[in-house]
């Protein structure tokens, strides 16, 4: 059987399977090998917030990237099995709040199974022009409107136009690398 025929057979099988039971692609890398490799990429840690018809919600994300400056656009990858997914699906307002040194507890709070009210009670918030919550202590906040969405495997990629930015007082950054937090750019 040709490669093309193989792909066709696999595509039709995938259509009938749920995400949870979907096998890795033919000749593909295991999820474990992929994650072990990804653990070597350091990434900023962010709390992504939203509010609107779908309700207020927030989660920790390292899968955030700049897409283009014309128009200013970033992307956020959200696992569709997360409890926050319905809120982000139903709202267009989104704020990327980038964490700084000493914010490990906030990352763990928004990255765990904690009820939403408890997550938001732990810190101070303002409301952005979009309507999304801005974390008062953030190193930088990007107030956004979601302009496009694409589902890839388990995740939804949200493309977000940046409406405004707010720079925090600190200059350091909290980075997630090798499955641990690292503080960089801390002076003194
Ligand atoms: N993109 C993501 O969805 C993502 C990223 C980082 C962490 N996490 C969550 O935090 C937990 C702990 O992460 P860890 O780094 O300590 O160990 P890990 O071994 O679970 O993950 C290692 C790296 O793989 C990537 N990764 C993990 N889960 C992923 C997923 N479902 N989809 C795409 N990429 C993924 C991330 O880059 C992560 O830093 C993960 O199990 C996951 O639930 C998710
Ligand atoms: C450092 C770090 C980084 C990430 C995460 C966690 C942590 C600790 N999580 C997981 C995400 O925060 C977590 O699934 C939800 O907050 C908890 O989901 P529930 O609301 O309990 O379903 C996560 N999830 C996601 O969909 N995209 C991402 O980029 C990341 N990145």
TrEMBL record:
It catalyses: FMNH2 + NAD(+) = FMN + NADH + 2 H(+). HAMAP family: RutF. Catalyzes the reduction of FMN to FMNH2 which is used to reduce pyrimidine by RutA via the Rut pathway. GO terms for biological process: nitrogen utilization; uracil catabolic process. One of its GO terms (molecular function) is FMN reductase (NADH) activity. Pfam families: Flavin_Reduct. This is FMN reductase (NADH) RutF. Keywords: Flavoprotein, FMN, NAD, Oxidoreductase. Belongs to the non-flavoprotein flavin reductase family. RutF subfamily. Residues 38-183 form the Flavin reductase like domain. NCBIfam families: RutF. Its EC number is 1.5.1.42. It comes from the Bacteria. InterPro entries: Flavin_Rdtase-like_dom (IPR002563), NADH-dep_flavin_reductase (IPR050268), RutF (IPR019917), Split_barrel_FMN-bd (IPR012349).
């Amino acid at each position: 059987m040709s490669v093309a025929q193989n792909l066709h057979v696999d595509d039709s099988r995938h259509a009938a399977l749920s995400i949870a039971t979907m096998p890795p692609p033919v000749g593909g890398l295991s999820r474990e090998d992929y994650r072990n490799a990804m653990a070597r990429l350091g990434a900023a840690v962010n709390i992504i917030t939203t509010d609107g018809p779908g309700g207020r919600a927030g989660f920790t994300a390292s899968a955030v990237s700049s897409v283009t400056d014309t128009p200013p656009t970033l992307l956020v990858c959200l696992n569709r099995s997360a409890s926050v997914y319905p809120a982000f699906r139903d709202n267009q307002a989104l704020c990327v709040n980038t964490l700084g040194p000493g914010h490990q507890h906030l990352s763990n709070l928004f990255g765990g199974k904690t009820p939403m009210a408890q997550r938001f009670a732990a810190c101070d918030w303002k409301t952005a022009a979009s309507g999304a919550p801005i974390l008062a202590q953030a190193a930088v906040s990007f107030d956004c409107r979601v302009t496009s969405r694409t589902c890839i495997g388990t995740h939804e990629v949200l493309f977000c136009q940046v409406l405004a930015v707010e720079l925090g007082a600190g200059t350091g950054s909290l980075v997630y690398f090798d499955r641990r937090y690292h503080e960089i750019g801390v002076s003194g």
